Amino acid sequence: MIEVNRKGEVWIFAEQEDGKLSDVPLELMSKGQELACTLGVPLAAVLLGRNVAPLASKLIAHGADKVYLVEDDRLGHYQARGYCHLICRLIEQYKPQVCLYGATPIGRDLAPTVASAMKCGLTADCTDLQIGGHGDPVTKVEHKNLLFQIRPAFGGNIIATIVNPSRWPQMATVREGVMHMPAADASRKGEIIRVKADLDGVTLPLTIEESHRREKKVNLKAARIIVAGGAGVGSRENFRPLWDLANALGGAVGGSRAAVDLGFIDHDHQVGQTGTTVRPALYIAVGISGAVQHRAGMQEAAKILAINNDPDAPIFSIAHFGIVGDLNVVVPKIIKAVRGGVKIESLAEKCK
User: Fold this and answer.
1) Mean of the per-residue pLDDT values of the chain
2) What CATH code is assigned to 220-351?
3) pTM, entire model
């Protein structure tokens, strides 16, 4: 069998808006370092924007060995055509073997645009990435050091591993929150490679006169305690005790996709495969059945307390503690106990 072993850097698209880095490229640095170390190649960040040079040192502190920096006033607001043109030019010049993007609105727009222009594959919404080999039984070619792009498929019922042995670079988007953000090390040294923004002849289709952004109502990723409700809560009004419990615990309120779709809680609070991935110290799941899509976003919580009137609810299979009962009875009792000075750890032990 013929062996094919390619070499090339691992790249991470350093998404930023208004000179502020998104969390997801920093989260990708830990996985990027792991992949680059396995491949024996540098880890590089690709940073495009207007007056974004100060961000390069932050990317290096979080793990980048190189930063490809492209600055131009026309890059002040993201537009796929300009960003795609420059990234494709960088890929053609430096020939990376792996390009990773966050599965954010910008990443989900830019990554397929670049993949189409470069005629290479793209796997969306990955939850894990590994390096491995793949042998083609037809061509008898053994491909070394391929990117294994791992993601849920068929509604989360299976985990698919996708490889792209023939078209490069290998590209994937990764869901926000699934990778651990590495600690910054200000002593790290890296190389900043300034690249001219050659946008001559590139027509940007939009002229942006004003930009308005609304901050998220809640930062679920930073919450140490989350009280989340599902369709079983029954109504928006029935979510009120969950807010009271979260306030008593100093936590945040989350919701399943079903609860969001039913209008019980806003989308900013959604936890799960199509929402936010969280890793709190304590996750209290109230009236949540535990579909795989929801479990994908919260199952790495340090402790999980499930409250459901169905003893066979799938959520109990991953819960550390469980209460089978009516949430309208159970939740007020927990609130009373917490306000009475009972520690949630002691309460959880009693609930098992």
Assistant:
1) 89
2) 3.40.50.1220
3) 0.79
